[in-house]
User: What shape does this take?
Amino acid sequence: MNTATLGSRAGSPSLPSSGTMTGLSICIRFILRRNWIRLLVWAAVLAVMIPVVYDSQQQAFPTQAARDAYAQVANTPAVAAMTGLPYAAGSLGGILVIKIWMTLAVALAFASIFLVTRNGRADEEEGRTELLRSAALGRHAYSVANYAVAGALSVVVGLLVALLCLSVKLPTAGSLIMGASIAGTGLAFVAIGALCGQLSSTSRGANSLGVVVLAVFYFIRAGADLQTKGTDVSPLSWFSPIGWAQNMRAFGQNTWWPLLPLLLLAVVGCAVALRIETSRDLGMGLLPQRRGPATATAFLARPVGLVLRLQRGSLLGWLVGAVVAGLFFGGVGKAMSDLLDPSNPFARALVGNSGGSMLQSVLAIFALFNGLLAGAFAVQCLAAARAEEAGGRLESQLAGALSRTRWLFAQVVVAAAGSAVMLLLGGWLMGISSNGAATGGTMAQASFAYWPAVLLMLGVLLFLQGFLPRLSISLGWAVYGISVMVAMFGSLFSLSEAAIKATPFGAVPRMPAEDFAPLPIVVLCLIAALLGALGMWRFSTRDIVPE
Assistant: This one.
């Protein structure tokens, strides 16, 4: 079902021509048709982490004594700031919350913001909303359908989380609270995404504003947890929706009432967004766009300068993430290595059967985390090139003397250079914050060893953008996700060492637990260069492909 089909259906005589919600059901079907693969992937990836993480912790902490020891590690400022307060760290359910709750909640918040923006502000920016409203669609029908679909994703993920917790025989009350708290977080950020879409006049601006708001709420929650003594709630945590959801305390006190303000924020936020939509002009945002300088600087006039200008918010956010991750990993490295029993084969599999000491293995797995983080940034950064093409902005950029190859190469340079900075900075901070477990130079080298794997991810995405442009972003993220799962959990899935080494991130030597080996690095670089060259060649010869 495309936009023209929707317009013709909405304009059929069978539909009434009055009412702000006219055509709501058709809009919902249309949005589902456009996004069903994306929705399935988000729901499956987020939910499947529950049994994977639970199985790993059940085998890593088989006794109550081991869980109590983990509770001591979890009750530290670094862990509290990163993953939240350890309300029930001595139980399997409590450990599950510490390990995965914050990841799921923040990931679902990102999904909610991006989904609302894609089907809201982005469609309005590209002129599709104006086309839809030219038929017999109510003024708010498409927006309400957008919010409903994004909210449904949050509810489905919450239900799946609760059901999967029950399937591994965790307590019923805690399982339901776990699912409800994650769903509530997603619903709250549906409203935040809706408001950002009304404030900004561009999809890029709406996404950036939404991410900034999410980051602010995350750091407010982190600051509140750092102030907390024991498990008492800091008043500061009530200034963040993430704090509200966390205070439901799954598998601890199992408190239901913090779900109410999350639902209230979702309803009121969406209602305010609809009210703003009534009063503003189509295509405009409530916040006026700033006027840029009359002339561009010499650097901004270059392809790389323009990409840096467009990507500066994203680049800054990812660099902050690399800094936080590096300091966190360095701060807990020694404690985690002391906690894991080297004689436990599962603990060895969890951090990799590298043959080094447990401390070296833990630091090596943290370096892998840095590599995965840089890989995610690189994929997102280069995916913006496809967004420029799909949105029709590429043609105007190529109207002058700029060639396609130079334009795409500039996108690759920013993604590759930004990921290199992230790896070096994150690794160095990990080393200097490790309390003597490693040096900054050692961990910077261990993290930077994953740069060829990141380049291979860029090569894959370039190849897909050249040959399969419309599917490139979805397939690129799918390849990245599979690589992450195999590299992180391949041993837990009983995959052979050869199968793990055949993936981009699995092929990299896990330093400092393993010695540096140049062969896999060279192979990764060669494959990345080949795929990238093929993708660049195809992009330079094919037609511009809109969405």
Remarks:
- Confidence is low (pLDDT under 50) at residues 7-17.
- Residues 24-60 form the longest helix (37 residues).
